Amino acid sequence: MTARDHDEARALAARYRDTGDRSARNRLVELHLDIADFFARKYARPKASVEDLRQVGLLAMVRAVDRFDPDRGIAFSTFASRTVEGELKRYLRDHSHSVRAPRAVQELNLAVRSAQEPLTQKLGRVPTVAELADHLATDVDHVLEALEAGARTWAVSLDQPDRNEDGATIADHALGAIEEGYGATEVAEVLRTLLATLPERDRLILRMRFFEERGQEEIAAQLGISQSYLSRVLRKLLDDLRARLDDGDAALIDHA
User: Fold this and answer.
1) Average pLDDT over residues 97-102
2) Lower CB density within 10 Å: C or N end of the chain?
3) CA-CA-CA-CA torsion for 51, 56, 59, 63, nearest 10 degrees?
């Protein structure tokens, strides 16, 4: 802002303080809308939109006008910037986090984020963690903790689509699922002790089906028989084996 703008802001603030003229307050806020816009964009988060933060910033701007003393010699833009930024930090700390970190860690995370831009401009590159810690007069471990907490602030729905696969959700990859192959493995272990007592062809069929986990269509083609005939052979083999096993092992074959 120019010196003339600062003089106008001071005059408006003095008029509002002395007379309570709301038009002066409104004009002062209008002259500094860019402050709310700047900090709203700076602190926007996945669950705190620019527009939501802008509304918080505008309310903070009104409070800044109410508290500003034009006789102290500080520019209103400076006072308003500090007020708006502080209010946005409190809003993010107290209202928008879905995964709660300790308050001290949240505050340090915001301080780190605020320091990154001026340090980047000063250094001509992204600052290191050590440089951030030195700038904030804190330990490197504390900065690392704050950065990690900031990365884990937002909870994500498990039903949200996975960006890497069409139609899949995060839950499809993040949560455990029943592995059908385990059942076949257990059956194979039970059958292994009985294979030596069976004819060679029967052993071959069972080995290909349960040990090599081949499909019935592939087995039937290799043996030169129909798939329906193979199914009947397998069923008979399993019925015979079931009769020779105790109840627990027979249940494994039923499950297979």
Assistant:
1) 58
2) N
3) -150
Q: Does residue 68 contact residue 83 with C-beta atoms inside 8 Å? A: no
Give the whole-angstrom CA distance, residue 150 versus residue 132. 15
Read off φ and ψ for residue 24, nearest 5 degrees.
-70, -40
Q: For the domain bounded by 100-154, which CATH number is listed?
A: 1.10.10.10
pLDDT of 238 over the 60 cut: yes
- Looking at the DSSP bridge assignments, the partners of residue 161 are 169
Q: 181-255: same fold as 100-154?
A: yes
Contacts 24+ apart (CB under 8 A), 137-142: 138/108, 142/108
Q: Which class does domain 1-96 fall in? A: mainly alpha
**pLDDT tier for residue 34 given thresholds of 50, 70 and 90:** very high
The count of residues in the chain is 256
The conformation of residue 208, written as its DSSP 8-state character, comes to I
Average pLDDT of the chain?
Answer: 76
Q: Which residues contact 20 (CB under 8 A, 6 or more apart)?
A: none
d(CA 170, CA 199): 48
For the ranges 26-40, 43-57, 86-100, the lowest mean pLDDT is seen at: 86-100
Domain ranges of the chain: 1-96, 100-154, 181-255
Joined tokens for residue 136: 């904030």
Instruction: Tell me, yes or no, if the pTM score tops 0.85.
Output: no
